[in-house]
Structure formats: structure tokens, C-alpha cells
Amino acid sequence: MTSPFSAAAPHVHGDVQGRKAGVVIASTRAAAGIYDDETGPVIVDWLTEHGFDVFPAMVVPDGEPVGAAIRALLSQHPAVVITSGGTGLSPDDRTPEVTRPLLDREIPGIMEAIRRAGSAKTPLAALSRGYAGAAGRTFIVNLPGSPKGVMDGLTVLDPVIGHLCDQLDGGHGH
Predict the structure, then answer these.
(1) 75: helix, coil or strand?
(2) In a 3-state reduction of DSSP, which class is residue 86?
């Protein structure tokens, strides 16, 4: 699968080569095999194109399994964990609730930019409740469950992911 981000990867500030990354997809129906996850491959491709060593994507039911999957990834000390799904208003959309307790510091500007980018295309982007922040030296971000919402989020992350990882790893360059 060719990603629309291929041309953008060389413009990333900072070096992510060899850093680890994980992907958690929150979807009860995809986890049950009712349909195929469409966002995980997009995220994995984007991370790979940016030089990350990506763990296999985990597709888990909404709710606490998402928190368990994030905690399992954190034990492997990745630079980045990207989730997709579970950020809406349905009763089982619990990704923000299981992510926030894992964050040492929130990075609200990332989510503001992601919602702004999505809102330029659909007013429904304002309903996304995801978080972005740091758990130790790991950047965690909750992207929406739609492929278009994921693309909007990755577009926002594209120019900052390398610098963000450098900063969390103790770098001071600007």
C-alpha cells in the first residue's frame, strides 16, 4: 500500500531511525473479526515510512483492553504509541479514559491541531475526545477510528514527530 505521506517523510525534524513504535486499534467489531481494521495498516505504513521499528498492530475491543494494550507496549519502551478508535461518544468509546491515567504530561496543542485539521473537513471532528501526551519518554496520541480522521491526525504529526521524540528523549535542539 502506498501512503500519501511518502513525500512528507524527508521533511520531518529530528531523527526517529530505529526508534520503536506501537499501534493499538480500539474496535470491538474488528477485534471480533466482524470487519477488517482499515486504520492500523495506514498508521503502521506511516510509522515505517518515518523510520520507526513498528511492533505488530494490536486490534482490541473498546474499553479496558485498550489500556492493557497500551501498558503492554509501554513495557517495551517505544518512542511512540498511536491509538485509533474509541474517541467518540458511544458508551463503549473509552480510549481517552484509559489513556489519560497513563500520561505524565498532556500535550494539548497536538489534539487541538488534529481537531482543527479534521474540522476543516467535517464538523464531526469536534466530537473526538482523544488525548496526546507523554508517558515517560513515550509519546501517546489517540486518533479517531475513521481512516480520514487518522489521515488528518498523521498529517498534523508529520512535521513534528521527529522533534517531539527528540524532546522526550532529552534533546534540547530547536
Answers:
(1) coil
(2) coil
